[in-house]
Amino acid sequence: MEKINTLEKLNNMGKDMVGQIKKGHSPYFTTPLRSRGNIKFDKEEGVLKLGKKDEKRTFANVGQARKFMQTMAIAAKCKKFVEEELHTSIRGLYYQLKFSLGENLEEDLFSEQSESNPLIEDLEVALDVKREDFNLSTDRKGFVAGDMLIEDTFGGEKTVIDCGKQGRSGWSIPSDVDNGMKIKELNADYVLVVEKDAMWQRLNEDKYWKKQNCLLITPKGQASRGTRRLLRKLADKKLPIYVFTDCDAWGWYIYWAIKTGSMNLAYLGTEIAVPEARFIGVTMKDISDFDFLSKLTIKAKPVDIKRASEMIDYPWINRHKEWVNELKTVLRTKQKLEQDALQGPRLTFVGEYLAKKIANNDFLP
Amino acid sequence: MEKINTLEKLNNMGKDMVGQIKKGHSPYFTTPLRSRGNIKFDKEEGVLKLGKKDEKRTFANVGQARKFMQTMAIAAKCKKFVEEELHTSIRGLYYQLKFSLGENLEEDLFSEQSESNPLIEDLEVALDVKREDFNLSTDRKGFVAGDMLIEDTFGGEKTVIDCGKQGRSGWSIPSDVDNGMKIKELNADYVLVVEKDAMWQRLNEDKYWKKQNCLLITPKGQASRGTRRLLRKLADKKLPIYVFTDCDAWGWYIYWAIKTGSMNLAYLGTEIAVPEARFIGVTMKDISDFDFLSKLTIKAKPVDIKRASEMIDYPWINRHKEWVNELKTVLRTKQKLEQDALQGPRLTFVGEYLAKKIANNDFLP
User: Fold this and answer.
1) Which of B92, B205, B343 sits opposite A343 (nearest CB)?
2) What pLDDT digit, counting tens, does each position of B306-331 carry?
3) CA nearest to B103 within chain A
């Protein structure tokens, strides 16, 4: 999203409001409903999205006046941040609002930050703009190693970062990988997404990315918005995206959130989902292919069992019979398997496992 | 700690055991007691340390045989990792042990990873070596921006990383900042440690480190072992270390853990503590110096009140009357203050605040 476009949208929203007021109407705007009932799985695209239901936010409504006013105050602050070309967190936004609204009003509008978060989402969906485009930073998490040059224009300076020359640390994926940031050069055959940072470090030490000519990425658990956007951009460049997690509730969640998007970010839809992603492992099926794993399984926790049975009911999962088989095995054996178990025979085994599965196209959909 | 030294220590431990067995004795080793009763505050050095109490771990003792055997198995694996020059996490270690001990023994020695952690600590203190020297990686966290070149030798390759050319991301502080890593060049007048990553990003965008010729570091909350070691190394280079956190239970904890070390890492003593550190803010005193802050305070939570009254009783804190005053103000007003509040009047205010306090040497001890 370009800054001009974001500013224009914010300006137009303001003009709309003024126009409505001048005509003697109560100002209002409409925003797609984000509740569960309006979240749909788009079969064609393979992505969780919002449906067609809208909500109207209006000033002249006792139940909505306060929130309406808050949303307009947020929009005004975001406009200022974009014009100033300065970024802050929603905590920083909260204090700016508290500072400027606090003394002119009878009560503190933003006594709790939790009030401002859904209002920012309102603005994001109403204007079809991401909060990153409002210069609001989100929690960053995740690292990259591989043959990729990133051009980062930040605080008025341009830097080129070589993700192949970051030693043991890797390049930290920022909150915003769109504005002022581009992939300048990229030389990789695929992207490997590794759930755990410690496993990423293990593979980085083995120079897995160099030997396999791939990009090695860890989301460090659940993928941040920035990491999901980066994966989307890499998939747009036609790189296959392989995801490597534990075989348990948390690992599956990480994979499916990357692939189809997640309920709470369904409003970002295709911007943040990577339906092209494939699941490389670890799987219950691996146990029959790699004998030693049978003694390295762990008893599944109640949350794993509960999650597995829920997942079998999701239409976007149970349309894949491979996943149904996988989840049924978990439910039957009540066992789970961690990616770390592949270090059992020798520390370097995990790279051999991955290279073999990739060579054999041995993935779950 | 050099690798040779670590290997030598592991070898000597093994030889000791064999010697004892050959003499017909039950093998044993001694290790300093790590329980609360043996943690002392060293007034001279200003650091939490272990006292003189030792414990004996012996094989011929029904209550200790199992743990003794586990510890020896861990020592053997760590020796292998160091010789192979490969790193792993304690989760990787756990699976290596499960793999090699699992089939020869009646029961799984390491059915739970929680069993192995205290045993690794036993080895660390018994041999006076850090787990990082055993090639065991710990959770990494924290970022640096500033004029510093890091030489990182990793996986057989040497890379030089310029912490001043990392754009919006910064250099990610790794688990181990000692082995295969050195500070090649450093040009800074002081180190600023900023509790929150979002605030670090704010200051990085303002190029605070360039304007002030300092190193800008965020531990991202509680400082990791790697971040504390890096701060120790920077303090050894005679750079002043200023810590900037929230004025609340969590912020104070972050500061005091950096300064004196923490209870659970007291066994690392001076290796990981930075008694030279000073607290820059935010403080209750700031409210009288910066008027607008009085309307940006928040009601303290019960945990903040509880922590403040506990801290007043710690001898290493209440010997500083400035801290006693600060904590008494919190207890009296029942208010807290976040570092983000400094963004209230304008986003760039936080840098002005910091520069002013540093110019005036306005710190808590």
Assistant:
1) B92
2) 999 999 999 999 999 999 999 999 99
3) A295
Task: Evaluate whether A3-137 and A143-359 have a shared fold.
Answer: no
CA of B132 vs chain A CAs: smallest distance (Å): 13
pLDDT digits (tens, 9 = 90+) for A21-55: 999 999 999 999 999 999 999 999 999 999 999 98
Tokens standing for residue B362: 């306005």
Residue B352 host element (H or E) = helix B349-359
pLDDT of B118? 85
The residue from A28, A95, A190, A253 that is catalytic is: A95
Q: Give the closest residue to B191 by CA, choosing from B229, B241, B146.
A: B241
What pLDDT score does A132 carry? 96
In chain B, the residue whose alpha carbon lies closest to the alpha carbon of A348 is B86
Task: Answer yes or no: is pLDDT of A56 > 70.
Answer: yes
d(CA A203, CA A221): 16
CATH code for residues A143-359:
3.40.1360.10
For residue B109, name the pLDDT band (cuts at 50, 70, 90). Answer: low
Q: At what angle do helices A302-313 and A249-260 cross, to 10 degrees?
A: 30
For B187-359, CATH number out of 3.40.1280.10, 3.40.1360.10, 3.40.190.80, 3.40.50.2000 equals 3.40.1360.10
Tokens of A362: 């041995």
Which chain B residues contact residue A167 at CB under 8 A?
Answer: 150, 152, 154, 157, 159, 161, 174
Q: What is the mean pLDDT of residues B113-134?
A: 88
- Do residue B343 and residue A95 have CB atoms under 8 angstroms apart? yes
Query: Mean pLDDT over residues A100-113, rounded?
Result: 61
* Residues contacting residue A361 through CB under 8 Å, at least 6 positions apart: none
Q: Which residues of B touch A296 (CB under 8 A)?
A: 95, 98-99, 102
- The continuous run of DSSP H or E covering B101 comes out as helix B90-102
With contacts defined as CB-CB under 8 Å, which chain B residues touch A171?
169
| CATH number, domain A3-137 | 1.10.10.10
- Chain A residue numbers touching B139 (CB-CB < 8 A): 197-198
**Which of A101-115, B40-54, B265-279 is predicted with the least confidence, judged by mean pLDDT?**
A101-115
Which amino acid belongs to residue B337?
L
Fold entry, domain B3-134: Arc Repressor Mutant, subunit A (1.10.10)
**Tokens, residue A175:** 């909150």
- Output the six-digit token pair for B78: 């760590």
d(Cα B33, Cα B39) in Å, to the nearest integer? 9
Total CB pairs under 8 A between chain A and B: 178
Q: Provide the 8-state DSSP code for B268.
A: G
**Domain ranges (residues) in chain A:** 3-137, 143-359
CB contact under 8 A, B86 and A348: yes
